[in-house]
Design brief:
With about 270 residues, this protein is of the alpha+beta class. Helix content is about 45%, strand content about 25%. It is built from 10 helices and 11 strands. The chain has a 6-stranded antiparallel β-sheet with strand order 2-3-10-5-8-11. The protein has a 5-stranded mixed β-sheet with strand order 1-4-9-6-7, with no helix packed on it. The protein is globular.
Length: about 270
């Protein structure tokens, strides 16, 4: 089975940055089908644009823009790219990264599809850091990765512990594309618990509040739509649940660091 060496992916490399024990790449995927393979190092993929199907030894799933994946170094997988321009942002971590900071790589076996919008927004911000910052700040990238692994380690512990039945229901609903339109009453009814109990217990299982979760979900949904040049900013703001354009622009810039229009210019540039 083919093993790709560090920094290599199937496609055209738009950009590659070596930061100590991190390799950051921006790659346009050009292969319609990629056979089973592994990678030399563990890495994250954040799909910027396009669609593809990801298959590993356990499951197969569709990946659209905004999908976040983690692959451990021994994970064998294959891909089918759907028609259209498809591009991914990768952060590859060499073994020294895990040894230096004593991070539990062994707990993250195989391939993981990470749906939490908190994690997705962290990767979107790291991507933006490589695009509009003259000197890439290793400190900022590394700090974001510490947050990611801190979150994943905590989530792994929560998964192994006994969880109430409502946690899975709420997670599925919140990760749905229409989650931005949900209300407290609807969420509480789905969970079949009192709204006060849901509010108090939610951070225990999601590592953030309901409000923050949904806010980041709206931002991520807006960022995906901004990659489509035929969708107006007004329509995006409305579809993602922002009160008006000023609210949309202000919230997006606060979360991502640039305005929606600036982000659209960056994400659509080839």
């Amino acid at each position: 089975m083919l093993q790709l060496q560090k920094g290599n992916y199937f496609g055209i490399q738009n950009k590659m940055i070596q930061l100590d024990n991190l390799i950051i790449t921006d790659t346009e995927y050009t292969h319609d089908k990629v056979d089973w393979h592994t990678h030399q190092n563990p890495y994250f993929t954040f799909l910027l644009t396009g669609n593809m199907q990801e298959t590993n030894k356990k499951e197969s799933y569709e990946c659209s823009a905004g999908t976040l994946l983690f692959h451990n170094w021994q994970d064998a997988h294959c891909n089918v790219k759907h028609p259209g321009y498809t591009r991914g942002f990768h952060i590859e971590l060499e073994q020294d990264f895990f040894e230096r900071y004593q991070l539990p790589l062994s707990r993250m076996e195989g391939s993981l599809k990470l749906d939490n919008p908190v994690l997705k927004l962290l990767f979107r911000n790291m991507y933006m850091e490589t695009k509009y910052t003259a000197d890439i700040e290793l400190l900022i990238i590394r700090e974001s990765l510490f947050k990611v692994f801190g979150f994943l380690t905590g989530e792994k512990c929560r998964e192994t512990a006994r969880q109430p039945a409502w946690v899975k229901k709420i997670k599925e609903v919140l990760n749905d594309a229409d989650a931005a339109t949900l209300s407290w009453d609807v969420l509480a009814a789905i969970a079949q618990v009192h709204p006060v109990h849901l509010s108090r217990s939610f951070p225990t299982y999601f590592n953030t509040t309901v409000g923050d979760y949904l806010k980041k979900q709206r931002i991520n949904q807006a960022a995906v739509l901004l990659a489509k040049a035929d969708v107006s900013l007004t329509q995006i703001g409305y579809e993602c649940g922002f009160a008006d354009q000023s609210h949309f622009i202000r919230s997006f810039k606060q979360a991502v660091g640039v305005t929606p229009l600036q982000y659209r210019k960056i994400i659509t540039a080839r």
